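Example S7 (structure tokens).
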């Protein structure tokens, strides 16, 4: 029997959770396709994965806010012999009240979080269904369970990913394809270091208890992929917050957090 390696495509692989997914999947014996804009970072990660895990690692640079670039990735996905994991992870935040923010950035967020994830899933699914094997992880957020001032469109795009994943998982039941909407809480990545968040000093101001390392979040996601819930919130503290959000009892914590965002927006 030939030893056929699984293939995983990770968007937003140049940093944070995406790089952690790539490392974890390579360690599990997958070959990787790395997608993001910063080619140098992707090339460095690809070299690391080849050396550390003997993985074949391809770099597909793309700006997922760009229609033509997404079409290019779709075409390359359709041309693959196999794709076992699609990790729709690329994402970013836009700081400040919606009505005061850049509509171009908000539109890009919808393109990256919603349109790119939806279209790459559409491109990947025929092959996965035909082989009766595949996993799609849409990286959502704890923010998907609430509408917070200063984070309106971010929360809404992530809520889309939850609903999309839930429905898709039901459609695919019995077809061998698993779907997860991963809803991390505060995770140590570059997300809060990007220009939109840099001067908020989130890691200093939000208690350490709430922060999780990216590799722990990824580990938990993959552990729950086969048998866990479709909308997966890692760790008890975040599950409590998500429940509060779902019940509309955002209360004290998010009153405090939204005040925090408002003051610094
Ligand atoms: N960190 C948190 O606390 C947290 C919590 C909940 C959910 N999340 C979600 O986790 C996901 C990963 O974020 P992270 O925390 O790992 O942040 P990060 O360290 O800033 O990484 C974000 C990744 O997304 C990529 N990306 C952003 N815009 C892109 C575009 N237009 N085209 C292609 N790639 C793009 C970036 O690559 P390039 O810049 O090289 O293109 C980078 O690889 C996001 O969807 C985020 O919403 C994060």
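Recovered sequence:
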């Amino acid at each position: 029997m030939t030893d056929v390696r699984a293939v995983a495509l990770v968007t937003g692989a140049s940093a944070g959770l995406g790089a952690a997914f790539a490392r974890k999947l390579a360690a599990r014996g997958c070959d990787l396709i790395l997608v993001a804009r910063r080619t140098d970072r992707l090339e460095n990660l690809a070299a690391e994965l080849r050396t550390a895990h003997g993985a074949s690692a391809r770099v597909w640079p793309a700006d997922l806010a760009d229609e033509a670039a997404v079409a290019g990735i779709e075409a390359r996905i359709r041309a693959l012999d196999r794709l076992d994991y699609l990790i729709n992870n690329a994402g970013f935040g836009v700081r400040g009240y919606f009505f005061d923010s850049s509509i171009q950035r908000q539109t890009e967020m919808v393109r990256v979080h919603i349109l790119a994830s939806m279209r790459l899933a559409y491109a990947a699914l025929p092959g996965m269904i035909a082989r009766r094997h595949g996993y799609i992880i849409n990286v959502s957020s704890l923010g998907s369970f609430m509408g917070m001032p200063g984070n309106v469109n971010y929360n809404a795009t992530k809520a889309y990913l939850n609903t999309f994943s839930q429905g898709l998982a039901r459609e695919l039941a019995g077809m061998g394809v698993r779907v997860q909407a991963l809803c991390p809480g505060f995770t140590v990545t570059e997300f809060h270091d990007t220009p939109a968040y840099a001067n908020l000093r989130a890691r200093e101001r939000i208690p350490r208890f709430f922060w999780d390392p990216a590799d722990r979040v990824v580990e938990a996601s993959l552990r729950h992929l086969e048998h866990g819930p479709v909308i997966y919130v890692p760790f008890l503290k975040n599950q409590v917050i998500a429940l509060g959000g779902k019940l509309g009892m955002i209360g004290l914590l998010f009153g405090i957090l939204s005040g925090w965002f408002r003051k610094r927006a």
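Notes on this example. The chain has one domain: 7-264.
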